[in-house]
From TrEMBL:
Domain of life assignment: Bacteria
Organism: Sneathiella chungangensis
Protein name according to UniProt: Transmembrane protein
Segments passing through the bilayer: 26-43, 63-83, 149-173, 179-196, 208-227, 257-273, 312-335
Signal sequence segment: none
Keyword Lipid biosynthesis: no
Keywords: Membrane, Transmembrane, Transmembrane helix
Coiled-coil region: none
Length: 337
């Protein structure tokens, strides 16, 4: 049995709205749980217990810092299962040729708006049949400020909030010098792997993730006093603390510069990431069809520009992970006993 095109399109829209509603609920759960867990983690407490806000229940720090990142990682991973499904369905929706009379964008027919207009991963460069023909004249900076704000808010909530919350949990707990600090570290690294899928080449992302993961795990293992004593690192601790305390103001200024540099780069990525990828996909198609000998200087310069921007977005993720590692290392050395 073959259904008509109108019925197939109706089913597609229904499935998009259903997936989008589930994604919206998971976004709400991620925001609420992240805020609640971070407030709990950074509230004043004694050495062994934390008091949960609103409910007033006391839990041990080991239990909280082992369970909280697992909850966040579960919500974050489950959310991105739906986000990937939504992105795939939206790509199919965008390829359907139909005209609208009352709205400026066909996606305005869908619900809800926040995730419908988010910047999702674009796999067009990996699947030639899925490439969308985007002319170079259409590749320009967006002009709608409101659309920029929607894209940035969606990008931060869907992609950045989860890894940031798990990274802050790791920073807060690594100074406790407990083996359970490996749990928030591992959760943070898994969330970063999901985040790396947003930009750049998969091979480059995987290679960098392996290197960063090794450094994070090694540092977290060294933070455990028993492991540190067994390899004789305690002899270097006091001189290192003295040096860091002496240059604390310089280090704080450096972290501020790195943080705002990262924010600026991620702003570019959230607003223009899909434009960059669409441009590169179309340029690669031109190079394949016409041959590289036919390329002019303008085309080559534009291609190199977009390629450079793509690499810049990948580097921003490296900076993102490095900031967490540097702050965690600084806090650990300064405050550990």
């Amino acid at each position: 049995m073959k259904i008509c095109e109108a019925k197939e399109f109706e089913l597609l829209v229904s499935s998009i709205e259903e997936v989008s509603k589930h994604s919206r609920n998971l976004v709400f759960a991620l925001v609420v749980s992240s805020i609640y867990i971070l407030i709990t983690a950074y509230s004043p407490s004694d050495e062994t217990e934390l008091t949960l806000p609103a409910v007033g229940v006391k839990v041990t720090k080991d239990f909280f810092f082992a369970g909280a990142p697992l909850i966040l990682l579960g919500i974050y991973t489950y959310l991105h299962i739906y986000v990937n499904q939504l992105a795939e369905k939206l790509r199919v929706f965008d390829q359907v040729d139909f005209e609208v009379s009352w709205v400026s964008d066909s996606r305005n027919l869908l619900f809800p708006w926040l995730l419908i207009f988010s910047n999702f991963p674009n796999d067009a460069s990996e699947d030639p049949e899925a490439q969308v023909d985007v002319s170079l004249q259409e590749i320009a900076l967006p002009t709608k400020v409101a659309q920029h704000i929607i894209n940035i808010v969606s990008f931060v909530i869907v992609w950045i909030l989860g890894p940031t919350a798990m990274g802050l949990l790791w920073i807060q707990y690594v100074v406790q010098q407990q083996t359970t600090s490996l749990i928030p570290c591992l959760c943070f690294l898994v969330s970063m792997l999901i985040l790396f899928s947003r930009f750049g080449e998969k091979r480059l992302n995987t290679r960098f993730w392996i290197i960063v993961s090794g450094i994070f795990l090694l540092f977290t293992m060294i933070s455990v006093s028993g492991i540190r004593q067994s390899i004789g690192l305690d002899n270097y601790w006091n001189p290192l603390r003295f040096i860091l305390i002496a240059y604390k103001d310089v280090l704080e200024l450096t972290f501020e510069v790195l943080r705002w540099t990262f924010v600026g780069i991620m702003f570019i990525g959230s607003a223009f990431g899909d434009n960059i990828k669409s441009a590169l996909a179309h340029m690669e198609e031109i190079r394949t069809k016409n041959g590289r000998d036919s390329e002019g200087r303008t085309f080559i310069n534009r291609y190199n520009l977009f390629k450079g921007l793509e690499k810049l977005l990948v580097i921003s993720l490296c900076l993102y992970a490095s900031i967490f590692l540097a702050i965690g290392a600084l806090m650990f050395v300064l405050f550990s006993k």
